[in-house]
Amino acid sequence: MDSQDVLDSKIHGRKLTLGASLSYFIFSLVINAAGNVLTVVTSQKIHPPFLGSAYWTAASAGVNKAIFNGNSSMLGWVFFVIGVAVAILNVFLQGHFNARKFFGNIAFMVPFSALISYFANIFSSIMPDSQSIGMTIFYVILNFFGIFLIAIAISIYQRVNLVLHPADDLMQILRFKYFKGSAAKAMWASYIPPTILAIIAIIIYPDFSNYGLGTVFAFLFQGGITGWGDKAIFPNLKHQGV
């Protein structure tokens, strides 16, 4: 434990038991992965594509499309590599190396990437292409619901603060270090890296199928939903160790 960890533990002692922390974490991890994949698959099932994915998901799927031709089995690996890069960025933003947080970011990516690949294979196989206006509307609702699940999952495991997805750790660092606790402002600022990735992916392979209405919805509302979730979903669960 480094000096910063010692300081954090003295000032912000954790009140959750390990069992409770793990329960919240596992639940939020599953719904986050499912929500991410819902946004990708619903976007792919509408022709011509106009829906798009959640913001980080759109960028990652765009990179997967540009490099691996959209191979669903590679999507988890793309998420993993991008996550490692963001974990390194977080070290610089924090201004010090916290080994527990850094390797926690990396550890998060292992089950998360596996769940992404798992849900991607299932949803891709059971969800048919949209053939009607009604099916398209249903997929739009599912896409927005996927973004809602992501935002709620972020709210839960950010408050647990056991281990975080690197992108959500980035948002949390920005939220409490630079934006006075504002989830919406921090989320918008955290979207700078995926915006850069998306531009690079489009230059490599000009495909816009992962960007659209859902991406705009995520940009506008995901941070706000996360802030709402802090108060409305498990309201007795408070931020631990921030």
UniProtKB/TrEMBL annotation:
Lineage of producing organism: Bacteria, Bacillati, Bacillota, Bacilli, Lactobacillales
Transmembrane intervals: 21-41, 74-93, 105-127, 133-157, 186-205
One Pfam family it belongs to: DUF6198
Protein name as annotated: Fructose permease
Keywords assigned: Membrane, Transmembrane, Transmembrane helix
KW DNA damage (keyword) present: no
Superkingdom field: Bacteria
Source organism of this protein record: Weissella sagaensis
InterPro entries according to UniProt: YczE/YyaS-like
Keyword 4Fe-4S assigned: no
